[in-house]
Amino acid sequence: MKTVETLSEVKANCKKLNEYLNSKVDLEYSFALNLIKKGTCFVVIRNNNEYYFYPSRFIGYANNSMKAHLNNETKDGIETNHAISFLFGSKPCPNPLLDQYYRAYCERLGFEANDKGCFGVERKFWQVWETTID
Q1: What average pLDDT does the structure give for the chain?
Q2: What does the alpha-carbon distance between residue 59 and residue 51 come to, in Å, rounded to a whole number?
Q3: If we measure between CA atoms, which residue out of 10, 51, 13 comes closest to residue 32?
Q4: Which of 18, 58, 92, 128 could form a disulfide with 41 if both were Cys (CB 3.0 to 4.6 A apart)?
């Protein structure tokens, strides 16, 4: 799959993940929760003083969907991290405050955050992006 090349593509993927979370359709909802629970690198969006976390491995591929993601046998967070870092002009970094907000976000979604990201790696975050994902 092709990685994102514009911020509007990132935003569209964030919107898609929100749709899965808001639909409460079991397969889509579980898929979205699993991505968030197992994620390591996240784009953070603040909307109305609430923080939302979007895993790079999903939002970093252009026009992504549950079906496309599950069928992408070559998906790689290194590839998506590079594409997102290029767009934001920075690399994701550990941030204890954002990690606290991430844990609170997980609680809002109904589960307890793992201590670390996938493979025991410390979670990392891109700068907070203040926007509306409608």
Answers
A1: 91
A2: 16
A3: 13
A4: 92
Evaluate whether 44 touches 52 at the Cβ level (below 8 Å).
Answer: yes
Using alpha carbons only, what angle is made at residue 34 by residues 21 and 93, rounded to the nearest 5 degrees? 100
Written as six digits, the tokens of 73 are 């046998």
Token pair, residue 1, equals 């799959």
How far, in Å, are 2, 53, 117, 130 from residue 47 at the CA level?
28, 11, 24, 6
Residue 122 has a pLDDT of: 92
**Among candidates 68, 33, 78, which has minimal Cα distance to 53?**
33
What is the three-class DSSP state of 6?
A: coil
Below-70 pLDDT ranges, the chain: 131-134
pLDDT of residue 134: 59
| Residue 76, strand partner residues | none
Residues linked to residue 50 through DSSP beta bridges, in sequence order: 47
What residue type is 67 in one-letter code? K
